[in-house]
């Protein structure tokens, strides 16, 4: 269910009248480069706020959070001020998760949230605890008890069901707090969540023999398509699609590479790159032209928490097995500069990246 939920929330559809507020808490140990605790709060699949143990306070990631009225802000601030402290509560709650496990890493996730159907008014709230990427115990809304998802979770389940007062807190959160915060937040976020923004599209190339990347960034929502054309026909050969990535400001970016090694200079003008955003009739089209290709490399800056966010998305979407497998391409942060971008494009081939000074 953990996986299905995450997939559901990361791929919401155009017809959605279901709004969601989902908080993802994660404690980890033994994982290199991961903070020991982090909190991600998403509203309708868009990052609202982020916290991890490398930061002092919770960071709002949407400007409308700063425009909230006093009485609404209180609900929100109360919620987020408690997020850093919740680390200890979560650790305490989940102590029994790894009783029999030794060594290696531990990742404990709590996904708590609610969904609101703004047509019927129906509310559905949930809490799922995960251990190392698998569902562990789930709150059953009918019986108001915790149920184990695996035999290993039996002890933890007994433990949870024995804590009546704590279970009451979850019930109150499910029934009152979460729906209230969701509705209040949605009121402010409506105009932002229902907007459509076209991206800026550019062509990037590391060296004259590298593939040309068509890169679109800053678009919203994430229902977008991009492809290369030759003579106005979509092509698939020698084309590599990169995964769509979230930007820090809630918009998205996407990239698609074309290997032009066998394209003669006269044929360049027959190619173009097309970006289409759902709900917008006009496409953004950029022709393959030397003069339009950017290759420069400025100073680079890496964004640590976005890497973490991506790691989390991967954990949620395809399960923890990703850590056990050798990955061909590690997740990288969305580029912020041309330099980072060309660095990312060529991460496999770069021999000496020293000219792109990185800092973290
Ligand atoms: C591009 O295609 C050529 C031949 O079609 C191949 O040799 C080369 O490795 C490809 N480049 C990349 C970066 O995939």
Automatic annotation (TrEMBL):
Organism: Oreochromis niloticus
Keyword presence, Transmembrane helix: yes
Pfam families associated with the record: C1-set (PF07654), MHC_I (PF00129)
Regions crossing the membrane: 304-323
Keywords attached to this entry: Glycoprotein, Membrane, Signal, Transmembrane, Transmembrane helix
InterPro entries: Ig-like_dom, Ig-like_dom_sf, Ig-like_fold, Ig_C1-set, MHC_class-I_related, MHC_I-like_Ag-recog, MHC_I-like_Ag-recog_sf, MHC_I/II-like_Ag-recog
Residue span(s) of domain Ig-like: 199-273
SUPFAM superfamilies per the UniProt record, alphabetical: Immunoglobulin, MHC antigen-recognition domain
Record's GO cellular component terms: external side of plasma membrane; extracellular space
Organism domain of life: Eukaryota
GO biological process, one term: immune response
Gene3D superfamilies reported in the protein's UniProt record: Immunoglobulins (2.60.40.10), MHC class I-like antigen recognition-like (3.30.500.10)
Signal peptide: 1-16
Protein name according to UniProt: Ig-like domain-containing protein
Keyword Protease annotated: no
């Amino acid at each position: 269910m953990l996986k299905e939920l995450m997939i559901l929330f990361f791929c919401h559809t155009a017809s959605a009248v279901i709004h969601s507020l989902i908080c993802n808490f994660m404690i980890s140990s033994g994982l290199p480069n991961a903070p020991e605790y982090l909190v991600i709060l998403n509203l309708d699949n868009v990052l609202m706020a982020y916290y991890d143990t490398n930061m002092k306070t919770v960071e709002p990631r949407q400007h409308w959070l700063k425009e909230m009225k006093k009485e609404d802000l209180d609900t929100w601030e109360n919620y987020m001020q408690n997020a850093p402290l919740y680390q200890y509560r979560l650790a305490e709650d989940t102590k029994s998760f790894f009783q029999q496990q030794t060594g290696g890493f531990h990742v404990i996730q709590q996904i708590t949230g609610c969904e609101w159907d703004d047509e019927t008014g129906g509310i559905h709230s949930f809490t799922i605890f995960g251990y190392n990427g698998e569902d562990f115990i789930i709150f059953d809304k009918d019986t108001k008890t915790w149920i184990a998802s695996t035999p290993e979770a039996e002890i933890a389940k007994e433990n949870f069901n024995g804590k009546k007062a704590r279970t009451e807190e979850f019930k109150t959160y499910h029934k009152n707090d979460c729906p209230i915060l969701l509705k209040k937040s949605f009121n402010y976020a409506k105009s932002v969540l229902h907007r459509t923004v076209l991206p800026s599209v550019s062509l990037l190339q590391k060296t004259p023999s590298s593939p040309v990347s068509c890169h679109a960034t800053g678009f919203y929502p994430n229902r977008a398509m991009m492809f290369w054309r030759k003579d106005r026909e979509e092509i698939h050969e020698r084309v590599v699609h990169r995964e769509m990535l979230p930007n820090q400001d809630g918009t998205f970016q996407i990239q698609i590479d074309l290997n032009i090694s066998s394209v003669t200079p006269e044929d360049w003008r027959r190619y173009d790159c097309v970006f289409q955003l759902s709900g917008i009739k006009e496409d953004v089209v950029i022709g393959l032209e030397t003069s339009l290709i950017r290759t420069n490399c400025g100073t680079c800056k890496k964004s640590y928490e976005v890497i973490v966010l991506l790691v989390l998305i991967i954990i949620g979407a395809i399960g923890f097995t990703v850590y056990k497998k050798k990955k061909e391409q590690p997740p990288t942060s969305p580029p912020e500069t041309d330099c980072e971008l060309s660095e990312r494009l060529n991460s496999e081939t770069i021999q000496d990246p020293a000219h792109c000074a990185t800092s973290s």
